[in-house]
Structure formats: structure tokens, C-alpha cells
Amino acid sequence: MKAVGCRLWAVAGATLLLTGCGNIEPWVKPYERQALADPIMSFDANPVSTAYLDHVFDAREGARGANGSSGGGCGCN
Amino acid sequence: MTKAWGVELRARASTSWLGLVLALLLPVASFAGVLGDDRADALYHRYEGGGVTIHGPSVLVRKKFAEKYALSANYYQDMVTSASIDVEVSGASEYKEERTQYSVGAEYLRGKTTYNLNYTNSKENDYQAETSTFGISQDLFGDLTTITMGFSRGKDVVRRRDTTTDQIDPTFKEPIDRWSYRVGVSQILTKSLITSFQLEVITDEGFLNNPYRSYRFVNPSDDRLFALASEVYPRTRTSNAVAVNGRYYLPYRAAIHGGYRFFTDTWGIDANTFELGYTHPMGPWTFEVGYRYYSQGNADFYSDLFERPNQQNFLARDKELSTFTSQALSVGATYDFLPNGWRFIKKGTLNIFYDRIEFDYEDFRDARFSLLPASDPNFHPAGTEPLYAFGANVIQAFVSVWF
Description:
The complex is a heterodimer of chains A (about 80) and B (about 400). With about 80 residues, chain A is mainly alpha-helical. Chain A contains 3 helices and no strands.
């Protein structure tokens, strides 16, 4: 019983320590992120286009998911 | 376990879990995140291939308020004209239909946490789908890491049209329930490299067939020919997909990106997707090229030609469940036509993208060859027809403005 409580507090403590890492010194400093902030580095620069192409492939292939989009319907008979 | 012991355990556990939850929430308010830009996109899309033409518009608008809230709305339409190989082999004639879809979404930013809600409704005359999504994203470690989690719940209704009269069959109405769970991490690794990892589990339950598709079996009266019967699918399907993606900023102003996705499901389909692309800005222009390779193995209950009707519990001949590869080559150009803005518009771009996709099937034959008269020199007995393949052209033209 006591062990269960201790374990949970230990998890909470460990989480506090981990989340304390939110204040760790970032190894890529904010002023070094000029390249990363360039629009050409965006994973999804044109959401309207990405969603459409995901649908084109989803409707014709067996695989689905893990492409960041969700939606319904088919239009694929 | 005694009752008192159980109560004490629950009380201690709940205190402990409270501590845990507080510990998780504490850093949330320590910094501030950002919501995406205010933006509007109007897109025209056109897909042409395999006897199918689908085109229509998609309009997406997104606006934030007080830097804490954002609303978005999307209207999307497919106008379909189809005389695909499936339509031809079933003996039906070309048909036309429309699908309209709208989505609305809301985002709320609190410190480093963004909460989002989304609702999508899609309607065809024989298919309706509603999907609700909840998501949360959290920036960590000086914004080098972003963790996302999401859950979607979908409810579809499948109807069936009579292919000769084009009327909806009032006796056929089947539901599908869908659940989707997603987690993701995006990570800045160096000042030039960002990566992401995603995992998604989807479960469906209900009528998962396409009600117009048939499986084929050897005609008992002539083994050079085939006969058709309605497909029978399992009523459940669970799939897992994991994806890793990376984007790298080159020593000059250009970027390369790559990605890989592995997919597996309870129907026996395994699939791999590889993607590679290059983005190159040049003055007001940005050019993109990309290549995508996809391959999958067939579902356990798929066969191009069954030996007899009802040969097994589940029977399918959907080419989407067969063994095949698809390869896509894409090129695109973006022109920044308002680099200095105009009135309330900060920036505007014109975009054109073209994709050429080649589908090559390894166990789905072109059954039109065995439908020819036996005297025709192109006639092939059922099961010996050439393998099916087709190419598709996909065009997207759109204008985007930031305001």
C-alpha cells in the first residue's frame, strides 16, 4: 500500500524533474533559428493542398493515417 | 481487498495522481506559444486517370483573435465522372456524382499549450460522414520539441444507388463507426534540421465494403469466363501507422525533405511509403520537385479470381486491397505576387502543382479482356488477362493571401 503511494509520488517527482527541463538551455538558441523559421522549412506550408493530396492517396491506397490529416467521405468508386 | 483498505488506497492514489497532474500542468503557463497566421486559400483541383475525372474547389479561411483564439472553416467539393474499370466490368455505365464537405475548427492557446476542436461533414447522395476531432499540442524544452495528441470519432452512413435507375435503394442503409488516436512529436535537432514522428491507430466498425464492388469467380459453365457476386468484408478493421519525416535547410537557401511511413492492419495489408523532395526559392518564385513511392501487400481475403462462389467467409476484389505499387512525381511553382502587401493583405501567392501518379497492380488483372468475344484476337481467358495499370494526372491551382 505504502509502496504504491510512494511509487506514485516518485513518478510525480520524476515528472516535475522532467518538465523542469522546459527551462533547460536549448541547444539551438532562438537567434539560431533563422533557417528553421524560413517558410521553405515548414512541414505543411500549404494546408489546403496537403489535405487534398492526402485524400487523393487515401482513396486509392490501402494505407491510411499518420499523415497529419483526418476527414471523411470517399468519392472513390 | 477490504472495503476500508480499498477506500484508503483510492484516496492516496487520487492525491498522488493530483500531484502528477499538477506537475504536468505547472510549466504550461511559463512561456507563450503562437497560433498560425491569418490566411485564406482558394484552390481548384483536378484528378484524371483510370477512366475517372474528379474536380472542384476547396476554400480554407483561418483567423485568430486576441492572439489566443483561432477559427477556421473549409469548404471542399468533388465533382465526379466515373467510367472506371470497376464500373466497366460490372456492366454499369458511366455515372456522375458530387461530394461536398465542410469543416469548422477552433483553437485555443494557453501558455505553451494549444487545444483544438474540429468538425467535418461530408455528403454524397449515397454516403454521409461526420467526424469530430479533439487535439492538444504542447511546446517543450525551449520550443525545441512539440508534442501533439489527437482523438477523432467518426460516424458514416452508407447508402446504395440503383445503377440503372440512379435511385437510392430505400432498403439499404448501413452505419460505420470510426475511432482514431494520434500522437506525434516534432523535434528541432540542429539549426538546419527538424524532424517529426507520428503514430496513428484507427479502428472502424460497420459496413466497410464498397456496396458497388463485386468479386469474381470462375464461371462454372465455362472456365474461360467469370461471374460476379457481391463482396463480403469483415465488419471491423484496425490499422496502425507510424511515420518519420525530416526537413533540412541546405547551405544555400533551399530545403530537402524526406519521409517514411509503415502501415499494417488487421486485414493483412502491410504498406511502405517513401517520400523525397526539394524546395528552391528564386526571387519571387519558389520551385518544388518531389517523388513518392508506395507499395502494399494484399489483404488476406483478396483474390483477383476465386475458384467458386462463397469460397471463403470474406471475399474481396477491390484493387485498393490488392498487391500494388504507386509512384508519384510532383512539380510545383509558387509566385509571390504581393511581397510588400496591399492594404490589409500582408502577402499573396499564386501556386500551381502537378503530380503524375502511376499505379501498377501485381495481382489485379484487366478483366475487360475476358469480357471480349472469344473470337476477338485480344480475348484472354479469365485469370490470364494482362495485369492492370493506369496513370493519373493531378493538378492543383490556388491563390493564398495572408492578412
